[in-house]
Amino acid sequence: MTDNHDEIRVETDGGLTKDDIHTTAEVGEQYRATVYRDVDYEALDVAPETSEYPETDGKWGFRKYDMPKVPKVSHLVGPSAIMLGASLGSGETMFWPTLVAQNGWGLYWAFWVGVITQFFINTEIQRWTIATGESIFRAFDRMNSFWPWFFLVAGFFHVGWPGWAAGASEVFAVWTGIVPRENWAVIGVATMIIIWLSYQAGPILYNAIEKAQLAMMFAAIFGAVILAFIAGSVGQFASVPGGAVNFGALPADMDIATFLGGLAYAGAGGYINLAQGIWAREKGYGMGTYQGRIKNPLRGAEPEEVHGGFTFEPTEKNLLRWKQWWKVTQQEHFLTFVIGLLVVATVAMTISAEYASGTDQGAINMWLDVIIPQLGAVQQQLMYVVIFIALFSTQYAILEAFVRNSVDIIFEGYGRSAGWDLSRVFLGLLTLFTLWGILIILAQFQQPWILLVIGAAIAGAMMWPYNALVTILNTTRLPEHTQPGWGRIIAMWWATGFFGYFTVLLIGGVLTSPEAYGLNFPAFSTTVGVVGSGPAGYALWVFALVVQIYTMYRSATAKMNASGTVDGADTARGFLS
Q1: What pLDDT does residue 159 have?
Q2: How far apart are CA 102 and CA 120, in angstroms?
Q3: What is the pLDDT of residues 468-482, one digit of tens each?
């Protein structure tokens, strides 16, 4: 499929025109849904094993095809809206407002640093997909088949318990009075069924989720902006700048598991972040345009094939298209995910700091029993709306991300070779996970706050290895023109060290906390300043240092070795390339 058109051709350097790089407005509008361009994959040339193309690791080769033309950023909004939805009911309205209410604004620095860090993590996860059309799990499988299955298991421990569905249901019960608060399970079951039914709204399973999350994103941001002016907490904004520059400050009695959960949930966190590349593929970002979308078999939709990997010849046209694709996808993530998080979360923190300072309540009880009763009638109703949307959008996005990630791992790891139908695998796992959630809700298996903390801590801990893997992947397997620039490599070094440091503190804290976790191994004690840790604690610190040095060495060496190996690679360089 081509996308030629008759617009006026404006010359650029090198004889190319702008319409050689960018789509027409008509074609760009197609990206507001999703875009799939069918190609005869088997007829395409296999890219040679040279420095101009991605490394195969001796596995599946990459087929050559042109990088598609680039739409406007306004046409591409979607994947980051789902990621924002996954974040709203976790860190943004739950963990961080609770942490600030309990410990003050001195922790705000960690929130915004965590958000910016996750901006780099998420966009680097997208890089491989934009360049090859493959998911990040397919890429991890190229490195070692252990990794996708590891993240599948860790992902279940992270989000396998439908706690956020219970939270949204409890809020809705208190808000509407439709059922007594203690009977929230009725609403919980209804929300799980509604989520499952929403996937039946059209032939392409991704589209309904994106539209729903976009609507909830705009409603939450709009509600938060109004609350900023009418909730009576505007004076708290004066404390934000001081907290934002209070780098490194932690309360002496700060629980590291809770804090690491907050860092992971300064964004969606953990297993959810890894869906960013798959959503980009479904949307049609870059070479993902040539990958089939998962269709709904119950709607009789004709299946589209998810092929192996693609790559493009580094011609001037393709390099300029890559540069522009990278620019617009960064803009989409920053304007949607980062700005949305900063607005909603900061407003929520001002309200919790104003009305629940020093609280010992968990997040949901803090909102329902401490904060909302102190607000005026109008403010109460708006607060209920924002909190319900936040929690419901999060469960929606969590279910979507867990299923989509897990289906990709299972299909690529086994199902493809076994001849399974990808769409049916998706629908099957979606149904099983929905039924699992309903079972937990109906059985009234209450998830204590401590399990939410443990789940969040696992989210943070699993980000340590995949930050390192993504950094190594994008520098050692991608050719020079699609590799991250030095600024991004340093940002990923920071992300790896950031989560590695707090993961070691977490492990030490868990293994030496008989009251909280029933474990007491003093040798594993770890301290914030490293010095004074136990013998096994020092071993953990040494291991973290080895991981950091290895990550930095492999990525830096690969980056330097790739320099000058692709003619014209500088053409693809841009801001934060």
Answers
A1: 81
A2: 29
A3: 999 999 999 999 999
Q: Find all residues with CB under 8 Å of 11, minimum gap 6, and list them.
A: 17
Task: Give rounded-to-5 percent helix, strand, coil for the chain.
Answer: 70, 0, 30
Nearest to 510 by CA among 454, 447, 455: 454
d(CA 99, CA 366): 11
The span from the CA of 169 to the CA of 392, in Å, is 8
Cα(471)–Cα(463) distance, integer angstroms = 12
- Residue 6, token pair as written in the block: 């008759």
- Look at residue 308 and give its three-state secondary structure: coil
What is the pTM assigned to this prediction?
A: 0.91
Distance CA 410, CA 413 (A): 5
539 SS3 class: helix
Q: Is the pLDDT of residue 268 over 80?
A: no
Q: 50-106, pLDDT tens digit by residue?
A: 999 999 998 889 999 999 999 999 999 999 999 988 887 766 778 889 889 988 999
As given in the structure block, the two tokens for residue 415 are: 């199902």
CA dist 509 and 258 (Å) reads: 11
446-453 CB contacts, 8 Å cutoff, 24+ apart: 446/166, 447/161, 447/163, 447/166, 449/362, 449/363, 450/516, 451/161, 451/163, 452/163, 452/261, 452/362, 453/255, 453/257, 453/258, 453/261
- Of 391, 398, 395, 403, give the one whose Cα is nearest residue 431: 403
Q: Average pLDDT of 338-363?
A: 91
CA-closest candidate to residue 437, choices 195, 181, 272: 195
pLDDT at 444 over 70: no
Q: Is residue 46 a contact partner of residue 64, using CB atoms and an 8 Å limit?
A: yes
Q: Which of 61-70, 130-139, 228-237, 287-296 has the lowest mean pLDDT?
A: 228-237
